[in-house]
Amino acid sequence: MFRLIPRVQHYDWGSYDALPRLTGRAPGDRPEAELWFGAHESAPSGVPAAGGHTDLAVLYQANPKALVGADAVRVFDGRFPFMLKVLAPTKSLSIQCHPSREQAQDATDGTYVDTWPKPEGLVAITPFETFVGMRDYADIVSLVAGLEVPELSAIVEWASGQDEPSVALLEALLTLDLPVRNALVRSVIGAIADREDDPAFPAIRRVAEDFPGDIGLVVLLTMNHLTAMPGDYVFVPAGCLHAYQHGVAVEIMANSDNVIRAGLTPKAINIPELLRIVRPDSAPIRRSEPPGRVRDYGVDTDYFHLYAVGPGPEATLIPGAGPRIVLSLQDSTTVTSGPTSLELSSGDAAFLAPGEDVTVAGSGTLFVATAG
Asked: What are phi and psi of 55, to 5 degrees?
């Protein structure tokens, strides 16, 4: 058992104060979007060491079997299986999609940074707003009919006659000529300007303040709007279109950074690859907070499994038997393994080796990430 030092990611969609407040630090002069806990090569967590410090990726590369166990090394082909994050968006992330393992392996060279999938799940710490998954096509047809935007209705009607209407609709929207696209976005934003009858409408208006004229605003109409309440869990499988909006959440994912974008971003949009990997029927899984002090959010993928242990003055055993990253939030916890104890303040984390029996007590909540 040893401490982990998170890596802060300063993306422009992040909050200036949410993560510092959660972790007991003064806000800085740059937004903090994510805290990373894991061994991803682009931002591995630091590890205090005698005479300096190292990081989790270096330790893993030196002796992977000792760190995660022989079974995990074999199953995950020598790659550290999962990564834990804390997210704090204040404006929309890009509309995006992640490939399956097979899709990442079959992609054209240079499409992805690695050959791994990126399924992900999150637990809301505050109310967490997102667009996730595509609406049923019949719902899209009904929604668009109510907007009375003739140019959008024509596209939706055309797509309905194609083999995969939702994919055809995405392709049609994303490949519009620029003048036509700009006019369509203006018409759609005008049509929803005073409407509150669908929760997506006010959310899209807020996004339009940051991304005026972006065709992603129309793509959001095709997606499900969802607000996860504190303690709720949302799993996002491969091929599921999504765009996180705002709030604070703990996120767990496979150890990959493979992303294909579909709007609301200045970064490149790879339309052919998006259309290849998107699965309109790939729906999110949402669960309410499980009961009990030790809460199991379920297994939806082989890559990760997430638990939480609520506050309590008496020590209780931390769940899981494989390699684990544990993160204390919303107050302090004490984790104990044999004669060794670590005091974890909110935002502090530790790594537990496979088979290590560790207990936790304290007034904070401990999130426990492990392989599936």
From this structure: -140, 165
* SS3 label, residue 140: helix
10 assigned to a ligand binding site: no
Nearest Cα to 39, choosing from 74, 73, 87? 73
Q: Considering the domain boundaries, does residue 18 fall inside one?
A: no
Instruction: Check the annotation: does 120 bind a ligand.
Output: yes
**Is residue 127 within 8 Å of 251, Cβ to Cβ?**
no
Given 184, 200, 221, the domain boundary residue is 221
Residue with tokens 């082989």: 302
Closest of 183, 123, 68 to residue 306, by C-alpha:
123
pLDDT in tens, 167-222: 999 999 999 999 999 999 999 999 999 999 999 999 999 999 999 999 999 999 99
Full residue range of the structural domain in which residue 310 is found: 297-370
Catalytic residues: 261
Would strands 305-309 and 294-296 be described as parallel, antiparallel, or unpaired? antiparallel
Q: Is 225 annotated as a binding residue?
A: no
